[in-house]
Amino acid sequence: MEFITKSAFETKSLGKEVASKLEGGEVFALSGELGSGKTTFVQGFAEGLGVKGRIISPTFILMRKYGVGDKDFYHIDLYRLEENIENEVIHLGISDIWKRPENVVIIEWAEKIKEMIPESAKWIKFENLGGENRKIIIQ
Ligand SMILES: Nc1ncnc2c1ncn2[C@@H]1O[C@H](COP(=O)(O)OP(=O)(O)OP(=O)(O)O)[C@@H](O)[C@H]1O
Ligand SMILES: [Mg+2]
After folding, report:
1. With a 6 A CB cut-off, is 72 part of the ligand 1 pocket?
2. Is the dihedral of CA 85, 41, 34, 67 positive or negative?
3. Are 81 and 51 in contact (CB under 8 A)?
4. pLDDT (tens digit per residue) in 64-90
5. pLDDT for residue 69
6. Which pTM does this prediction carry?
């Protein structure tokens, strides 16, 4: 499905709506250029899951884990990884995270490890259309 959002607020609302339809164990693979709205979407998504507190971009820390009820929500951002990305992801234990069916996982810059993303993951593509307009395609 394709959406055009006209503000960060609308992108957050879309994230919130997607989170409200989860059954557990989903993996979302987010792709799209810098500033296209991925983290903004994740903020709404986390709110929809019931995560308390602010979601910051994990760009400088690679991964954050949030407990929601009896589940864990992982926000991963691969932006900073530049070399041997697939090996890094394995050695840092990141790829184990989406193998556990009880985890809800969102991965920013998932296109960097396209081959490693599970078949069952849902891809969400972000595109900056200029100004505050963003195109968001949910697989
Ligand atoms: N329609 C919109 N949807 C999302 N963000 C928007 C929109 N309009 C303007 N913005 C602004 O664009 C920026 C999007 O930044 P965000 O951190 O979400 O992007 P990102 O894709 O995660 O970038 P990065 O690749 O650096 O992690 C924010 O400053 C946000 O306020
Ligand atoms: Mg981001």
Report:
1. no
2. negative
3. no
4. 999 888 889 999 999 989 999 999 999
5. 82
6. 0.95
In the chain, what is the straight-line distance between the N-terminal and C-terminal CA atoms, in Å? Answer: 6
| CB distance 41 to 34 below 8 Å | no
Q: Ligand 1 pocket: which of 36, 63, 128, 136 to mutate (most atoms <8 Å of CB)?
A: 36
Give the list of residues 6+ apart from residue 53 with CB closer than 8 angstroms, or none.
none
Cβ atoms of residues 98 and 27 within 8 Å:
yes
Torsions phi, psi of 23, nearest 5?
-110, -10
pLDDT in tens, 94-115: 999 998 888 999 999 999 999 9
CA angle 2, 125, 107 (to 5 degrees): 135
